[in-house]
Amino acid sequence: MKTIKQFTPIGVLSLVAIPAIAGQRPNIIYIMCDDMGYGDLSCYGQQHFLTPNIDRLASQGMLMTSAYAGSPVSAPSRACFMTGQHSGHTHVRGNKEYWKGAVQYGQNTDYAVVGQEPYDTAYVVLPEIFKAAGYRTGMFGKWAGGFEGSPSTPDKRGVDEFYGYICQFQAHLYFPNFLNRYSRAKGDTAVVRDVLEQNIQYAMFGEDYNNRCQYSADIIHQHALEWLRQQVPGQPFFGILTYTLPHAELRQPDDSLLQSFRGRLLPEREYRGDNPSRYNPTPEAHAQFAAMITRLDAQVGEIMQLLEERGLSDNTVLIFTSDNGPHEEGGADPDFFNHDGKFRGLKRSTHEGGIRIPFIIRWPGHVREGSTSDLPFAFYDLMPTFCDMAGIRRLNVERSDGMSAIQLRFNRKQKQLVCLNASNPEASNTLNPDGISIVPTLTGKGRQPMHDHLYWEFHETDMLGVRRGKWKLVVHHGIPALYDLDADPHEDNDLASQHPDIVSILIQKIYEDHTDSPLFPITLPPRP
Question: 462-528 has which CATH code?
Answer without folding.
Answer: 3.30.1120.10
